[in-house]
Amino acid sequence: MRAWVVDRPGPVEREPLTFVERPAPVPGPGELLVHVRACGVCRTDLHVAEGDLPVRRPGVTPGHEVVGVVAGIGGGVSGWASGDRAGVAWLRRTDGTCRYCVRGAENLCPASEYTGWDADGGYAEYTTVPAAFAYRLPEAVDDVALAPLLCAGIIGYRALLRTSLPPGGRLGLYGFGGSAHLCAQVALAQGATVHVLTRDEASRGLALQLGCSSAGGAYDAPPEPLDGAILFAPAGDLVPVALRALDRGGVLAVAGIHLSDVPALRYESELFYEKELRSVTSNTRENGREFLDLAARYGVRATTHPYPLSEAQRALGDLKAGRFDGAAVLVNDL
Ligand SMILES: [Zn+2]
Ligand SMILES: [Zn+2]
């Protein structure tokens, strides 16, 4: 099979990925072999390629928004059959026994492993996944439209939960890429008022099209105080900006896995009146299943830009340069 590997983590302009030919993986006990049909391009893939995240598996194949078809089944797997549609996402494995797992916070498991970081992911013709962490997918949605839901969508949904937004609340979204535009659709369907704050003009247009109430610059003040806000842009200097935009009791959730340094905060204007700053770490499988159900019910649709699998490096470059709104998706055309 053909697969992309991160040979030399570094700036994407210097082409850190190589497209190699290698044998297709063999599913281990408890695993599925998945023929990749489409794989979304997530900002985390860019962090893996550029070395912002430490190397966990040298020469790893990135990609953790995989829509595919079961092509092989390892020992001890039940409930899956060859030809079933399957989704592969970021959370790949947990121990199931630690203090976090047993209280339902498997996203915090210290032994957790991640697709496309600890193990080879979906920038390839085939990948494997532990069957217990594979998602069933709705039949009605096509491969490309479904792929971004598997990380961008699920993480955006967990970030929304982390804001504890009250019913009918006012939500601010800082940055409006793949994750935010899916999160916005869920929040709007649930009756929130959504304000988007982003430097990217094309994304502001998309935000208004989707039904958001306003779309301004990243450092602008929203037109009204916010009950909740989510920081999707990986820019730590937006943390105090977003905290100042919160109403009393408001919550800011930082959605990214990587954030530049947060400047010193002013207690009076940025934290007092019980404002809260929260991070978002990965997701639980329950978040994933719940989001995929809601997405089907609300008709959540990703705005997608397909690229052939062979052009993964160009897709990452375009993501970094902000050359598209919504989400890039690699299509296995091999
Ligand atoms: Zn655990
Ligand atoms: Zn991701």
Automatic annotation (TrEMBL):
Taxonomy, superkingdom: Bacteria
GO molecular function: oxidoreductase activity
Segments forming domain Enoyl reductase (ER): 13-330
Catalysed reactions, semicolon-separated: a primary alcohol + NAD(+) = an aldehyde + NADH + H(+); a secondary alcohol + NAD(+) = a ketone + NADH + H(+)
Cofactor(s) needed for function: Zn(2+)
Listed SUPFAM superfamilies: GroES-like, NAD(P)-binding Rossmann-fold domains
Gene3D superfamilies for the chain: Medium-chain alcohol dehydrogenases, catalytic domain, NAD(P)-binding Rossmann-like Domain
Entry's EC annotation: 1.1.1.1
Keyword Oxidoreductase: yes
UniProtKB keywords: Metal-binding, Oxidoreductase, Zinc
PANTHER family: ALCOHOL DEHYDROGENASE 1-RELATED, VACUOLAR PROTEIN SORTING-ASSOCIATED PROTEIN 11
Family to which the UniProt record says this protein belongs: Belongs to the zinc-containing alcohol dehydrogenase family.
Protein name from the UniProt record: alcohol dehydrogenase
